[in-house]
From TrEMBL:
Organism the protein comes from: Streptomyces mexicanus
Topology term for the membrane: Multi-pass membrane protein
Any one GO biological process: transmembrane transport
Protein name per Swiss-Prot or TrEMBL: ABC transporter permease
Cited Pfam families: BPD_transp_1, OppC_N
Keyword field contains RNA-binding: no
CDD domains: TM_PBP2
Stretch list, region Disordered: 1-27
C-alpha cells in the first residue's frame, strides 16, 4: 500500500506566525515597559505622587493661575507688614521685607523645577553617552574614563557645588543646573557602563553580530533599549535630589540669588526669626519637602515596577 501524503496549508503570515488567541486577537508579546506601566497604574503611591508632580508642573508653567499678583511688580513688598502672620487675603503671611509669602512660594516653584529637570536631563545625557562608550570600547579607554569619573564621584555634591559656584561667580538657575550636572553624571555613567557590559555579551548581541549588523546598529537597536530601565529609575529619583541641592546651595548663599525667587533663599531669610514668626519658614520649607518627597516616592514606585530583580 503506498503511503498517502497529506499536505497541510501554511498560514498566510508564514510558518512562524503566532496562533491567535481564543477571542481571535493576536497574542501580544510581553514587554518590560508594558508590564511596568500596567503595574504602575495599580499603585496608589504612583497616582498620589504623579498628581502632586502634575500640580507642581502647572505651578511652574503658569503661576498666574494660582495668584493674581507678581512678586516682580512695583509695590509688591510693604515693610509695614514685615513678618505679619497669615490673614484672609494673604494665606501664608509676610516675610521680613513685607512680601507676600504665598505669591513668592508659588513663583519659586518654577526655579526649583527648572533646576531639577535641566540637571537630570544633562546628567542622564552626559553620563549615559559616556557610560555606553566606555562599556562598548573597554580596554584603556574604559580605564581612563572610569578613573576620571571616580574623581567627580568622590566629591560631595554640596562641597563641590560650593567650590565650583564660588569660582564661576554668577549664580542663576542655569549655572546651578550646569554645576549639578557636572557633579552628578558619574552616577548615571556607572549604571550605564555596568548595564552595557552586562548586555554586550548576551546571545542576542552575538546573533546580531553574526547576521552582519553594524556596531552602531547593535549599540542602539539591541543594547541601548535593554539598559534604559535602570537609567529611568535613577533619573526619576535624582530630580528630587537636585531640587534639594539647589535649595541647599541657595540657603548657603551660593546658589540662586535675588531678585530671583528660590525656596532656599526664603528659608535662609526666615531662619533668624522662626521662633517669633514660624510661618515665614514653615511654608517654603513645606513646599520644598513636599516636592522632594513626591519625586522620591515616584522614583521608588518606578524602581519597583521596572526592576526585574524586584519582580
Amino acid at each position: 500500500m503506498s503511503e498517502q501524503i497529506i499536505e497541510r496549508p501554511v498560514p498566510a503570515d508564514g510558518p512562524t506566525a503566532k496562533a491567535p488567541e481564543p477571542d481571535g486577537k493576536p497574542e501580544r508579546v510581553a514587554s518590560l515597559w508594558r508590564d511596568g506601566w500596567r503595574d504602575l497604574r495599580k499603585r496608589p503611591m504612583f497616582l498620589i505622587s504623579g498628581f502632586v508632580i502634575l500640580c507642581l508642573l502647572v505651578l511652574a508653567i503658569a503661576p498666574g493661575l494660582f495668584t493674581a499678583r507678581s512678586p516682580f511688580s512695583d509695590g509688591f513688598c510693604d515693610l509695614q507688614h514685615s513678618m505679619d502672620g497669615p490673614t484672609s487675603g494673604h494665606l501664608f503671611g509676610y516675610d521680613v521685607q513685607g512680601c507676600d509669602i504665598y505669591t513668592r512660594t508659588v513663583w519659586g516653584t518654577r526655579n526649583s523645577i527648572i533646576v531639577g529637570v535641566v540637571s537630570t536631563i544633562l546628567t542622564t545625557a552626559l553620563g549615559g553617552v559616556i557610560g555606553m562608550l566606555a562599556g562598548l570600547w573597554g580596554g584603556w579607554a574604559d580605564s581612563v574614563i572610569s578613573r576620571v569619573s571616580e574623581i567627580f564621584y568622590a566629591l560631595p555634591i554640596l562641597i563641590g557645588g560650593l567650590l565650583i559656584m564660588s569660582m564661576v561667580g554668577s549664580s542663576n538657575v542655569w549655572t546651578v543646573s550646569f554645576v549639578l550636572s557636572i557633579l552628578g553624571w558619574p552616577q548615571v555613567y556607572r549604571i550605564m557602563r555596568g548595564e552595557v557590559i552586562g548586555n554586550k555579551y548576551n546571545d542576542y548581541v552575538a546573533a546580531a553580530r553574526a547576521l552582519g549588523a553594524s556596531p552602531m546598529r547593535i549599540a542602539f537597536r539591541h543594547i541601548l533599549p535593554n539598559t534604559l530601565a535602570p537609567i529611568v529609575v535613577v533619573s526619576t529619583m535624582n530630580l528630587g535630589v537636585y531640587i534639594a541641592a539647589e535649595a541647599s546651595l541657595s540657603y548657603l548663599g551660593i546658589g540662586v540669588q535675588s531678585p530671583a525667587i528660590s525656596w532656599g533663599l526664603m528659608i535662609s531669610d526666615a531662619q533668624d526669626r522662626w521662633l517669633t514668626s514660624p510661618h515665614a519658614l514653615l511654608f517654603p520649607a513645606g513646599a520644598l519637602s513636599l516636592t522632594v518627597l513626591a519625586f522620591i516616592m515616584l522614583g521608588d514606585v518606578v524602581r519597583d515596577a521596572f526592576d526585574p530583580k524586584l519582580r
